[in-house]
Amino acid sequence: xxxxxxxxxxxxxxxxxxxxxxxxxxxxxxxxxxxxxxxxxxxxxxxxxxxxxxxxxxxxxxxxxxxxxxxxxxxxxxxxxxxxxxxxxxxxxxxxxxxxxxxxxxxxxxxxxxxxxxxxxxxxxxxxxxxxxxxxxxxxxxxxxxxxxxxxxxxxxxxxxxxxxxxxxxxxxxxxxxxxxxxxxxxxxxxxxxxxxxxxxxxxxxxxxxxxxxxxxxxxxxxxxxxxxxxxxxxxxxxxxxxxxxxxxxxxxxxxxxxxxxxxxxxxxxxxxxxxxxxxxxxxxxxxxxxxxxxxxxxxxxxxxxxxxxxxxxxxxxxxxxxxxxxxxxxxxxxxxxxxxxxxxxxxxxxxxxxxxxxxxxxxxxx
Length: 367
Known about the structure:
By secondary structure, this protein is of the alpha/beta class. The chain contains 14 helices and 12 strands. α1 (13-21) packs parallel to α8 and α4 runs antiparallel to α5.
């Protein structure tokens, strides 16, 4: 799973990235400081891995991971070449979801002035500024693609016809300032064509309200405005104080727990971000467990057993025979896989089985 972190300059985007990935010194307070994106891979916190490991001995435990791409700050006019112009577009198009960091603090700790590019702090305005730039970028992409699509569709190839149909439907939607994801398509061929276009505004957005350390749970008016906006859009919002997270990143586990308690927080930002991203993208985890490794695998909700096996290796999907599954709760209750089997709780599932969140699986396949 990959998420691109975007935001206006000086909203704390790179500070948050560095904290989440323990990437070292914080980025300087300069607009357009990040020309090429920084990339970090962070483990997704998952208490069920430790629960499985408490009953099954193994050499290593491997969590699922989130790949974070810190993309250059976007400003008003970026789609027309302002700031870094369209240099960020190729990086955004490749991610699964967009994480937009929104400034919800007036000044930095100690009263340090961090200049907002628009002079005042208004998180909803900032969200709409970036939304407009991304829509305009997609509109430019669609307008450039239309002439070629018209020519290609003359050959009557179904894929080319579907692509043209989607482009023609997208142009007025984007021209009205609405994102590509707002376009409703019933035709499976057109739905596929839209996915293959990898338009920026077809991606879902997780809004990160970068709050002041006096409001770590995002209960103030600025963060509340972001929460309300995200709710109306059907998206997710997570309040995070990037400054607190940068301090937490330097502490050991004991000191980290103490600081979280002192701040009235129940978990660090990465937990919130991972949970928000999973929910936003409709993801879930299943596990494999054995003496060599216990590992979490990320799949979309509704994934069938053969496709879930294919996440491990394509040969598992091609030669899929069956899956032997049980729940983590069964393991905690009964204590071992043998006890689960003896109690009749080991399920044998075929090709039509829809994977459940928290399944522990062994896949049998033909080589």
